[in-house]
Amino acid sequence: MIRDFFRVMVVDLTTGKTRLKEIPGRAEYLGGSGLAAHLFREFGHIDRDWDDPEQPLIFAIGPLTGYFPLMSKTCCAFRSPYHNQYTESYAGGKSALSLRFADLDALVVTGKAKRLTAVCVGSRLVDVRDVEYMRGFDAIQTGRVLRKIFPGSGRRSIMRIGPAGENLSAYACINVDTFRHFGRMGGGAVMGAKNLKAICVLGDRGFDLPEGKAYPKLYKHIFEQLTTTEMMAKYHGLGTAVNINPLNALKSLPWKNLQQTSSPEAEKISGETFADDTLLRNAACAGCPVGCIHVGFVREQFQTNNQYLYRQVGYDYEPIFSCGGMLEVTEAPEVLRILDVIEKEGLDCMSAGVALAWATEALEKGAISENETLEPLKWGDSETYMRAVEHLGRQDNDFYRLLAQGTMKCAKRYGGEDYACVLGQEMAGYATGEVFFVAEGLGFRHSHLDSGGYAYDQKHDEKDVDKALNFLLQDGRERIVLNCMVGCLFSRGVYKDDLLAEALESVGYGELNGSMEDIGRRVQRMRWRLRLEMGYRPDEVVIPKRYTEITTWKGPVDVDYMDALRRAYAAKIMEMGAPPEDEGTQAPLSTAKKTPS
Amino acid sequence: MKALRAARMERCIGCHSCSLACARQVHKVLSWNKAGIRISSSGGLSTGFEARVCLACHPAPCAQACPTGSLAQRRDGGVIQKRNLCIRCGKCAEACPVDAIFLDHLVNPYVCIHCGQCVPYCPHDCLELVDLPSREEEEGSDD
Ligand code: SF4
Ligand code: SF4
Ligand code: SF4
């Protein structure tokens, strides 16, 4: 089943036709991140904007997806509406196993439908439907209707967008199976631009496994490691929300649009508080026994006389930082209520929270007025923020239209760039210091997951540019290998290169033994090359002033060190993304460059 | 005689580890359907999860419907499966009152044989093997 080639389904929404293609390259690209970039080379266009109907939306899984625990994610790649360059985003839910059991290594959607459309693909099914009646449906409602119109309950994944995606917000997300998201970089808008409301992937096949004991034995071994190690207990127990208290103690918790890096109030929205007061249950991506998804609940009185309704809202560290701390909303249920609205609108919660934090400060400082915000945004005022999220999703005026394209774009028009917390994209929740700010500011994915810069900051107070740079590159490369397998990054302590090689061997695909590091390097270069070809200039990246004003456990941020690291990393990216000498197989797409719109 | 019970499904996180384990170890396939236990949400993930699994009926309607003896009654409830006798008519799945038999596209039936191999793979201890009360011989039973 792990083949030398990739089996790829290509859906063309313009014609309504679907093709299956067999594309060689397993040994060079492995899968996931590598496969997606490779497919972008085949189907993408360097010389056309992100919303050109011909640009592809790509979903790719890895060779071991479904075969081993935590090989449970999907890589989604596209030209981003946020910066008009190549990008990728990761999510789990049931998306990865559904693709595996649909017998697809990747799904590529090209073209643009005339009317709003939903697509269902499976191993023996392709169904393209007009769902114009769903226009404006929120993400939850959309899921509910789709469950009725497509088959396969329990063995399918439903990916869909809310109003923000339809309205082409640059950080509209793709909701996957209710509690997971292709969050960052605007995949939702790419679907919106294609008039694609939803994709259902039906995983309805099974595959023979190798005879013998080696595979089940190795599975058991890995399963045990992943379900008993301490590292995993953290994700399962309080979940990533466990980070609030330690980051607060380290003065590394972004607070009130990063005016502060800690607050005595943080305890009220800590992982512990969420667990005690709002946690309803855990959930998992299919194929992952860890179950890090934390579902909280809020109840709301909607009428006097004890008439209540309740909602279930997923939470994690990042949503709490962005819609809690950044907005100084310090009651757990209120954070969940804001997140619930963001979920329905179909926005990335990190970007939405950070954007509203900037808007609050800009309002406070007089850069904008209530004419723009339409609401009296005020730190801690969740009701107002909930309404603002709706304005943002629906782009109710020019201000929100621009804010939905990115905080920095808005700040450029209205003023307040100094305190826009943008590192490539609206920041992730780690005010840990220089290495992280550079890592995210120049990072490929503009989340915090390219490399563990945030962890490096927490462990190192020396200021050694070479050492930090080496860490970013090496850690980045190791993560790329896991991104090609499309394993969950939480499992990176367990899935080292040797174990991955052993796992491939056990299912009869030992050919990649020893070449894992080469693949990591190749994919790293290929991804940067795509970005550079689309106009990325890492040497021109600016880290906003706010980041130079903060203090962490190491003291004030060292601007010179940060700058030196920024320049060194930018130079390295240019080098990695330079046209290859030794990769003659890679025909360049086109040399025409586009500047971001 | 033992039977598998999905006794604590309120705890289920939807990881499919159980069905993947059954498919892998009992049926030697990679699948989340071709298994004695299948997990589905009970209408969207916010409603929790259900297990489709054999209830160990006695008499077992699927065995009664099977024309070839491929599914035979187990002594205290549930069925014994002999794959080589199956003609893939699909009658068993039709007869199961709780949709516990999965038919793949080639009409191969997959049904729980109450071996318990899935149990240790459930990280939330949702599943257990219990002793079935032993039954009298045929005449004394209630069919
Ligand atoms: S499909 Fe096979 S097991 Fe089921 S009733 Fe028919 S012969 Fe019996
Ligand atoms: S008890 Fe055995 S046959 Fe039944 S579901 Fe579990 S592993 Fe499969
Ligand atoms: S292994 Fe347990 S928690 Fe996972 S799906 Fe099965 S019953 Fe649910």
UniProtKB/TrEMBL annotation, chain A:
It comes from the Bacteria. Residues 6-205 form the Aldehyde ferredoxin oxidoreductase N-terminal domain. Pfam families: AFOR_C, AFOR_N. Its cofactor is tungstopterin; [4Fe-4S] cluster. Residues 577-597 are annotated as: Disordered. Residues 587-597 have a biased composition (Polar residues). Keywords: 4Fe-4S, Iron, Iron-sulfur, Metal-binding, Oxidoreductase. This is Putative oxidoreductase YdhV. The lineage of its organism: Bacteria, Pseudomonadati, Thermodesulfobacteriota, Desulfovibrionia, Desulfovibrionales.
Automatic annotation (TrEMBL), chain B:
InterPro entries: 4Fe4S_Fe-S-bd, 4Fe4S_Fe_S_CS, RnfB_subfamily. Keywords: 4Fe-4S, Iron, Iron-sulfur, Metal-binding. Residues 45-76, 77-106, 107-132 form the 4Fe-4S ferredoxin-type domain. Signal peptide: none annotated. One of its GO terms (molecular function) is 4 iron, 4 sulfur cluster binding. Pfam families: Fer4, Fer4_4. PANTHER family: IRON-SULFUR CLUSTER BINDING PROTEIN (PTHR42859:SF15), OXIDOREDUCTASE (PTHR42859). This is Tetrathionate reductase subunit B. It comes from Pseudodesulfovibrio hydrargyri. The lineage of its organism: Bacteria, Pseudomonadati, Thermodesulfobacteriota, Desulfovibrionia, Desulfovibrionales. The gene is ttrB_3.
